Amino acid sequence: MRPSHMEMVNRKITFLYGSQTGTAQDVAERIWREARIFHFHGPVRTMDDYPVSQLIYEMVVIFICSTTGQGEEPDNMKHFWRFLLRKNLPADSLQGLRYAVLGLGDSSYAKFNYVAKKLHRRLLQLGGQPLLHIGLADDQHDLGANAVIDPWINDLWRKLSDLYPLPDGVVPLNKDILCPPRWIVSLSETAETYRQSSSNIELMEAKVGNNREEEFSQNNPCYVSIIKNTRTTAPLHLQDVRLIHLSAPKLQYSPGDVLMVCPHNASEKVDQFFSLLSCGSDGRLGPDTVIHVKEKDSDAPVPLALKHPLTLRRCAEQYWDLNAVPRRYFFHLLSNFTTSDLEKEKLTEFSTPEGQEELYNYSNRPRRTVLEVLQDFPQATANIPLEYMFELFQPIRPRAFSVASSPKAHNEEIHILVAVVKYRTKLIAPRLGLCSNWLAGLTPGTNIPVWIRRGSFHFPLSENNPVIMIGPGTGVAPFRSYIHERVALSQASNKLLYLFFGCRNKNGDFHFSNEWLSLQEEKHLSLFCAFSRDQEYKIYVQHLIKEQAALLWDLLSSKAWIFLAGSSSNMPAGVKEAFVKDVACGAGKLSHDEAKQFMQNLENTGYFQCETWA
Amino acid sequence: MMFSIQSGQKVLVVWGAAPQKKLQQLTGSLGKVCVENVDRLTMGSHPTSSFDVVLSGVIFPQSISHTTELLGEFLRLVKQGGRIILQEATVRNTNGTHLRTVEKLQSDLKITGLINIQEAKRVSLTDVEMQTLKDLLNIAINVNVVEIQCQKPNFEVGSSSKLLFTEQKRQVKPSANIAAVWKLDDTIDDDIETIDENNLLDEEDIKKPDPASLRVCGTTGKRRACKNCSCGLAEELSAEGKAVAVQPTQTKTSACGNCYLGDAFRCASCPYLGMPAFKPGEKIQLSDQQLKADV
């Protein structure tokens, strides 16, 4: 017996998440699924997708958020969070709200779970009532985040069941039964229907030049073509880095902005996927099969990309991430589909709390991909029902690249610097980053969908203050954009622009060396370089900071701006420490506490800005 | 100095550095009273919700600093709707001191969940008392001792009182004033003033978990591979950190006959570890690296 409609109205829970790589989203969707067992219902959304002004009317909201970068909130909750920080929000705004916060983080970072902690506090400040203690999941735990997540979720259901007991005669659902898929997925009635409705989409894609002038976004990408795709690192250098020139006459951007790219799965992987499916009992699931995806429940709307009928090939190529590391729920689903007892036993084991350690060793630690797991469980793969494919496979996530070109200097072009991700784990086949490898393989003339997102850097408009830029490796990209812009405006001088660059070898990965050296010659730029592996001992950008402490202190005393960009998790901390210890304390003669406060003030007032990526 | 204590109420008196005589003077005048030193408070295992009133730091010298942890304990000890009355030394300007301003103290009280926070009342001290207090707190500037009363809400986090069906039906109806502020017309919010989010965290939030609590098994010495390493250097790490059972033999042989099934079913000494599943009987080329045991 289910609760009556009236009773269900009061069993609404809203699930809001902030997720950078999809982990928090995965956890949010898990909690959302489990809620149904207790006859709760409600939408699961990113925080930015949710109209924040509605929050004052909600009764129960569960927040799931990770901490990313240098202690920052994920992109898809930035606006929501900014709104919550408004000073003018009354202290009793959320007095009708019961909430819970689950944070995902890594305690090897200084700002462990800061995002969740701050969110919890702010909600409390605004009058919200916490349902239970904050959950602080930690990747550093031997069993990973689930060591905290699993018991926290159990506590949550216990608490909610106490506060909102089920009406008489209604009992929780059996949690071992397979959760129904969120959408209705069916095979197309006729090929004709497909051709008619899809022709519009093909047209839109084919007409590269005819892009709408409104703002471009994931739902309305701009098609740009590849002009050049060249390797910037020396042939024998261990890392392949690409400088990609795109023709983008319609894209407006400023230095500091970021180009969003949505990659496709490599065609060999797509072929492999279909050859695995073809062993299956359902002979209809081939690349040319056309499917419809329709909404079942308003809590789970169909995304724009799936609104029109489309082929399975398109799903496998552009929508499903076959390169991702599958999560626990993936194995749970497969355990329901396999016809092999051996497989079922193993897949079930992987979905139990006791089997988490083994699962971690099997899939997370070696970064085994979805496709590789499907290969290891052929019976399960052969029997995946069509409608569950969208439960198993997650959508490909767009990636962000700092724009390396200047609007004024590189007219109608956009350049990006891409480090190709390739590394080894205990698996024989090397691990390949989906987006970087896809971009590396693109040939001139190919069109790809992209859009611009505002970066977090606010570069100074005036030319009065010195600008200190620290950008080792690919971190130099946004600074190339800014420096060339200044040169084009005739506002570049070596008394104002200071670039600190670091890489491994002067002759290996010294990105844009020709440009920097000529700018230095022409006195447009002061350049300092650290080549970490060119000598016995390591030299990093933080050593350069120390060396130039007197100069830097002088510049800071003339209200210089400091910008830091790059990809190492240790580098930002190392640079900040060098500023505190060597510049502010050493050259500036401040006490340690004063120096820390001084740097903190620079950060608070926007004179010290960081943009780092994993 | 009676703090409006009604007869029969159970009172907890928390003291920092008070001389015994003053302590006795206060407690003698109250009814049922428990006395605890602030440093020993968490050791005394008083049951939850056992006091009507908590008086903290109300005896000269007012040296107690009401941390989040301490306030949390008060919240636990006092009954629903119970009162907390505290006195604390505050300053006007926090530069170089460990004391708070009155505003920060009130804000911190709010953050812990206390309600009905009254206006801070000034506690006057003689010049001699002021100097003694300053010496005790190791502070050079004058302090302002304030007394603040507040209350624990009636809704207990963690209580399991079931809500009536009628209560459940109640919709959340925020006041017009609140609704007006929570509009989204102004989506370009660069100019709207925000609070400093760094102020949301205190020292406890900054603490990281105890590393010992993260370990599952001490003997295998498992180590995480650097998950951000994506530039080719991870080979070194994965070569170093593998936690595979060491076999004394020189060549790897299968111990279970499940080689073709895939890593999920293979034993630790399988020469095919790291390769995909294959058909039984299929010829697979193994590299030298795969045949050597991990030592």
From TrEMBL, chain A:
The UniProt record lists the keyword NADP: yes
Any single Gene Ontology cellular-component annotation: nucleus
Name of the molecule in the record: NADPH-dependent diflavin oxidoreductase 1
GO molecular function: flavin adenine dinucleotide binding; FMN binding; NADP binding; NADPH-iron-sulfur [2Fe-2S] protein oxidoreductase activity; oxidoreductase activity, acting on NAD(P)H
Binding site for FMN: 19-24, 66-69, 104-113, 139
Organism: Zootermopsis nevadensis (Dampwood termite)
InterPro entries: CysJ-like_FAD-binding (IPR003097), FAD-bd_FR_type (IPR017927), Flavdoxin-like (IPR001094), Flavodoxin/NO_synth (IPR008254), Flavoprot_Pyr_Nucl_cyt_Rdtase (IPR001709), Flavoprotein-like_sf (IPR029039), FNR_nucleotide-bd (IPR039261), NADPH_Cyt_P450_Rdtase_alpha (IPR023173)
Family from the record: Belongs to the NADPH-dependent diflavin oxidoreductase NDOR1 family.
Catalytic activity, EC: 1.18.1.-
Automatic annotation (TrEMBL), chain B:
Predominant location: cytoplasm
Location(s), subcellular: Cytoplasm; Mitochondrion intermembrane space
Name this protein carries in UniProt: Anamorsin homolog
Residues annotated for [2Fe-2S] cluster binding in this entry: C217, C226, C229, C231
Cofactor(s) the record lists: [2Fe-2S] cluster; [4Fe-4S] cluster
Motif Cx2C motif 2: chain residues: 267-270
Annotated family: Belongs to the anamorsin family.
HAMAP family, sorted: Anamorsin (MF_03115)
Keywords: 2Fe-2S, 4Fe-4S, Cytoplasm, Iron, Iron-sulfur, Metal-binding, Mitochondrion
Motif range (Cx2C motif 1): 256-259
Species name: Zootermopsis nevadensis
Database matches in PANTHER family: ANAMORSIN (PTHR13273)
Domain of life: Eukaryota
Domain spans labelled Anamorsin C-terminal: 249-286
Ligand binding ([4Fe-4S] cluster): C256, C259, C267, C270
Gene Ontology biological process terms, A to Z: iron-sulfur cluster assembly
